[in-house]
Amino acid sequence: MKDVTLVLEDGTQFKGKSFGYDAPVAGEVVFNTAMMGYPESLTDPSYAGQLMTLTYPLVGNYGVPQFSFEKNGLPTFMESDRIYASAIIVSDYSEQYSHWNANESLADWLKREKVPGITGIDTRQLTKVLREHGVMMGKILMDDEPDNIPEADYEGVNFVDRVSCKDIIRYNEGAGRKVVLVDCGVKANIIRCLINRGVEVIRVPWNYDYTGMEFDGLFLANGPGDPDMCGDAVDIIRKQMSVSRKPICGICMGNQLLAKAGGASIYKLKYGHRSHNQPVREVGTNRCYVTSQNHGYAVDASTLGKEWRELFVNMNDGSNEGIRHQTNPWFSSQFHPEACSGPVDTEFMFDRFVEAL
């Protein structure tokens, strides 16, 4: 293993060893407190441009499943067709793995997809730095290549445009009710949850004008980066809401885009929500759910239009976790109901959407 150094933008340095692809990389350093799910997280397009720190100390002990695909084109065990995170940072990488579904090691997978991975990092201290300062840009440098210094390609980048599909893709054709899914970086399990509820899914690029299409409902997917970079998507959502009362449901980035279409503004969280254990309360009830989340921005609920209300709130910091329209069947969640990996306590959000079609 080569010696590497993680350098944060404030000058803080962490020494470690490379166990993935040996190449320097730069990006936004974030942390995820989940205890499992690195195959799903690495292939989640919402991590595009980010150096993902896992706070759980032991990583790699259950290997990586085979990268296979179902007949409908969706990956069997992953959330997309490749790794989207720019790098993974762990405390203790396990070279030995054992799991009934394992096909290769995490290190072999990273090397094959040319994604750096570093171990031996004090991830507890790194997380403390990020919590106190907020998420920061960072660089992973190879100690034997001191002059090879990458530049971060993050600020002002429309990552949604980078990860969204470029052409229309259809799933479960002829099933009956049709749902247009706006692909901002959609996870495979979102599509799977819709297919399993007997609808046809029409997956369109993030900036595609679907308002002239025939469909029964609109679904706004998750995605990476700053939602303020997605003005075209917001304009199309507003156009759709001005001509139709058809049901609309959003998840994660979809929640933020729907809120922006409803007049709200977005702000960046200090260090984001990335975990399997975020407690969320449904407004107007005493029901609290354990949710899986992955986002760095939030809706400023105080700026919502008069026709909108909060649907969920985060019990840790009071930030918005979903919105709803008072009269029309338009609603969303900031958390991931499909939660792959993670808890599936809130999968009823898909049931609510399909019932409204």
Automatic annotation (TrEMBL):
Q: Does the keyword Ligase apply?
A: yes
Q: PROSITE patterns in the record, alphabetically?
A: GATASE_TYPE_1
Q: Where does L-glutamine bind?
A: 46, 223, 225, 253, 256, 294, 296-297
Under catalytic activity, the entry for this protein gives: hydrogencarbonate + L-glutamine + 2 ATP + H2O = carbamoyl phosphate + L-glutamate + 2 ADP + phosphate + 2 H(+); L-glutamine + H2O = L-glutamate + NH4(+)
Question: Which CDD domains does this entry report, sorted A to Z?
Answer: GATase1_CPSase (cd01744)
UniProt keyword annotations, A-Z:
Amino-acid biosynthesis, Arginine biosynthesis, ATP-binding, Glutamine amidotransferase, Ligase, Nucleotide-binding, Pyrimidine biosynthesis
Q: In which pathway does it act?
A: Pyrimidine metabolism; UMP biosynthesis via de novo pathway; (S)-dihydroorotate from bicarbonate: step 1/3; Amino-acid biosynthesis; L-arginine biosynthesis; carbamoyl phosphate from bicarbonate: step 1/1
Top-rank taxon of the source lineage equals Bacteria
The annotated region (CPSase) lies at 1-177
Carbamoyl-phosphate synthase small subunit N-terminal domain location: 2-141
Q: Give a Pfam family name.
A: CPSase_sm_chain
Gene Ontology molecular-function annotations: carbamoyl-phosphate synthase (glutamine-hydrolyzing) activity
Q: Which residues form the active site?
A: 252 (nucleophile), 336, 338
Question: EC number(s) of the enzyme?
Answer: 6.3.5.5
NCBIfam families named in the record:
CPSaseIIsmall, PRK12838.1
Subunit structure of this chain's protein: Composed of two chains; the small (or glutamine) chain promotes the hydrolysis of glutamine to ammonia, which is used by the large (or ammonia) chain to synthesize carbamoyl phosphate. Tetramer of heterodimers (alpha,beta)4.
* Function according to Swiss-Prot or TrEMBL: Small subunit of the glutamine-dependent carbamoyl phosphate synthetase (CPSase). CPSase catalyzes the formation of carbamoyl phosphate from the ammonia moiety of glutamine, carbonate, and phosphate donated by ATP, constituting the first step of 2 biosynthetic pathways, one leading to arginine and/or urea and the other to pyrimidine nucleotides. The small subunit (glutamine amidotransferase) binds and cleaves glutamine to supply the large subunit with the substrate ammonia.
Q: Which family does it belong to?
A: Belongs to the CarA family.
Protein's UniProt name: Carbamoyl phosphate synthase small chain
Species this chain originates from: Xylanibacter brevis
Name the gene that codes for it: carA
